[in-house]
Specification:
453 residues; alpha/beta; Alkaline Phosphatase, subunit A; 12 helices
Length: 453
């Protein structure tokens, strides 16, 4: 007779497939997707702080026409500055004519791969709840993150590596809650990697035991597992114990592949240079290596050593966007090109977004260097690969970029669409906790079928 744990190990399904099987009520049968998957994996490039949509992907000529005038309506009574036109030129690119600003000279060459969602909106224009909603679908730090839900639903493509990895040079605001598994089994927690030092021995510490070889470590782990099985007999369905067992096995198995998967020095110098030598650029290259080795969900946070929200341009918006976009543009374009050249873009979904956008009107904190404030009622998210239509501009905001109007798309709709592309029905991927069924999209969310190829 196989134990429950031995059965899971031999089938290779892992804990994640229990989630999908349970949501399908498929006991006794092999788990299967709710629909054909267009994407097998996700790379989420997170622009922490909120990029300005009217300076990047959503041109608004009316801002120049009405420059200096304050927006009308009760929602904008607190606006201290008037409409602020973008100084950047916009024009169409590629055969599809996707319009983007001059801040993206490299990414514009990939215009026909881009699906530009111009009608995004969210609930609150503050960083903490905005980050939580974009990452977990809820404004309080009590729910599992999207990466954890996907790990739970689909499991890992490589049992020797975590299914969910987070790359960041420092902890963003809210920190680990953005990649928390919360009440889901602990095996689906995101593995946080400090990218300040890109040497593999610094990215993943303690890969090599200082005294024991792998055979001795395996014996040690087998002994621990035997002891844990004795505990399991008395503590049936103990999620914390299951998570601890799984984490020890994953840590041991990572010795086989992590030293390779996390080592960007194995890449040729010209490819590393194409991504750019910045932390973000090299993290994008590392993200490609990780998904190539079977990591299911990789999140790359755009952060600086001295800033938690580099895109939070309350002052000197124009110059700061020049610097930020130059780095992000080069790395993002290199990632898309690299994925496409390797045949991976077709089933890898790449997402470029912040937690919200920025106001079309000015915020004056530094005289002569106008900024833009937080803005949640209309902003832009960009997707590529993974089954979305390339060369598409979907939805629109009003003439000033204040509010999403046509084909409005809430963050819940974005999450529902991402899960659908992964082959998951967002209404069926649930987890029962504290007497109720939870899901990533809660009681909301509609799949944006118009953007699916």
């Amino acid at each position: 007779m196989l134990t429950r744990r031995d059965m899971l190990k031999q089938t290779g399904a892992g804990f994640g497939m229990i989630g999908l099987a349970g949501s399908l009520q498929a006991a006794g049968s092999l788990p299967k997707l709710h629909s054909p998957a267009r994407a097998k994996r996700v790379i989420f490039l997170f622009m922490n702080g909120g990029p300005s949509h009217v300076d990047t992907f959503d041109p608004k000529p009316s801002l120049l026409k009405y420059e200096g005038q304050k927006p009308s309506g009760n929602l904008y009574r607190a606006a201290k500055g008037g409409y602020l036109p973008s100084p950047f030129k916009f024009r169409p690119h590629g055969q599809s004519g996707v319009v983007m600003s001059e801040l993206f000279p490299h990414l514009s060459k990939r215009a026909d791969d881009l699906c530009v969602l111009r009608s995004m909106y969210t609930d609150i224009p503050n960083h903490e709840p905005g980050l939580l909603i974009m990452n977990s679908g809820h404004l309080q730090p009590t729910r599992p993150s999207m990466g954890s839900w996907i790990s739970y639903g689909l499991g890992s493509l490589n049992q020797n590596l975590p299914s969910f990895v987070v790359l960041a040079p420092r902890k963003p605001v809210v920190g680990p809650q953005l990649w928390s598994s919360s009440f889901l089994p602990g095996a689906h927690q995101g593995m946080s990697v400090d990218t300040n030092d890109m040497r593999v021995e610094q990215l993943v510490t303690n890969l090599k035991h200082p005294a024991l070889d792998q055979a001795s470590q395996r014996s040690q782990l087998d002994l621990l597992n035997a002891l844990n099985r004795l505990h399991q007999e008395k503590r049936q369905d103990d999620a914390a114990l299951e998570a601890q067992i799984r984490s020890m096995e994953t840590a041991f198995n990572m010795q086989r592949e992590a030293s390779d998967a996390f080592d960007i020095n194995r890449e040729p110098a010209n490819l590393r240079a194409a991504y750019g030598e910045s932390t973000f650029g090299q993290s994008c290259l590392l993200a490609r290596r990780l998904i190539e080795h079977g990591v299911r969900f990789v999140q790359v946070y755009y952060l600086h050593k001295g800033q938690n929200q580099p895109w939070d341009t309350h002052a000197d918006n124009d110059n700061r966007h020049r610097t930020l976009c130059a780095d992000s543009d080069r790395a993002t374009a290199a990632l898309l090109t690299d994925l496409k050249n390797r045949g991976l873009l077709e089933d890898t979904l790449v997402i470029w977004s912040g937690e919200f956008g920025r106001t079309p009107y000015a915020e004056v904190r530094d005289k002569g260097k106008a900024g833009r404030d937080h803005h949640h009622t209309g902003f832009t998210t960009v997707m590529a690969g993974g089954g979305v239509k390339g060369g598409l501009m979907h939805g629109s905001t009003d003439e000033f970029g204040l509010n999403a109007e046509e084909n409005r798309m809430h963050v819940h709709d974005l999450h529902a669409t991402i899960l659908h592309l992964m082959g998951i029905d967002h209404e069926k991927l649930t987890y029962r906790y504290s007497g109720r069924d939870f899901r990533l999209t809660d009681v909301h969310g509609h799949v944006a079928h118009d953007i699916i190829a």
